[in-house]
Amino acid sequence: LAAGVLRDANGVAFAGYGVGGYSFSVRDASAPVVTVLSPAAGATEVALSSNLVVTFNERVVAGDGLIVVTALTSGTAVTLNATADVGEVVFSGSAPWTMTVNATSDLEAVLREQSYRVVVDGSAVVDMSGNAFAGIGGTSWTFTGVDGTAPSLVTRRPRAGETNVSANTQIVLQFNEEMRAGTGNITLSASGVATV
Q1: String of DSSP letters for 110-136
Q2: Exposed site from 92, 107, 132, 143, fewest CB < 10 Å?
Q3: Strands 125-127 and 66-71, how do they pair?
Q4: Which residues contact 65 (CB under 8 A, 6 or more apart)?
């Protein structure tokens, strides 16, 4: 505000303010916003050791809310408190501004070729002015874990060691999970007979 810009009723000029002579701060009223999710929403073949990382547009800290990771097939859920579970929910102190959910030990038992949903309560994360994050709800953050377990044979028909089986009997192998064709050959052989 330069000198002379304002005058009183008698025409006397106000001396004005120099640079920095009058300043104030405006309260941050904007809630933090997610810029990146890792794994990305819809990602597949996510490694069992992966952390869940949410990157924000500003610095954030723990609020008072929950983070829930649910295996959609089994319904098994891992629930963490953003404030209480400080070893498993970590907020960065410098840019990029992240919240890392390091629940690998909890998730390894759950993450087996299933789809997962991550829900973050709006009150779980706040910015430095106390503005609460809107949260992540519904199915907006889902991903699929990698299958780390080999399939196992549950039943076979005809049964192993069965005798007097008709030559036109269909061979049926039942596994503990859905199967699809791989590479290689299936070989059938009979005692004293050439391999088919």
Answers
A1: T-SS-EEEEEE-GGGEEETT-PBP--B
A2: 92
A3: unpaired
A4: 81, 82, 120, 121, 122, 123, 124, 125, 135
**Is pLDDT at 156 greater than 60 in this prediction?**
yes
Euclidean distance between CA atoms 105 and 120, whole angstroms? 19
pLDDT reported for residue 140: 94
110, 59 Cβ separation under 8 angstroms:
no
Indicate whether 111 pLDDT > 60: no
Task: Show the DSSP H helices in the chain as ranges.
Answer: 104-107
Q: How many CB atoms lie within 10 A of CB 76?
A: 16
What is the model's pLDDT at position 101? 93
Stretch 148-165: mean pLDDT, rounded? 87
Provide the 8-state DSSP code for 145: B
DSSP assigned state of 40? P
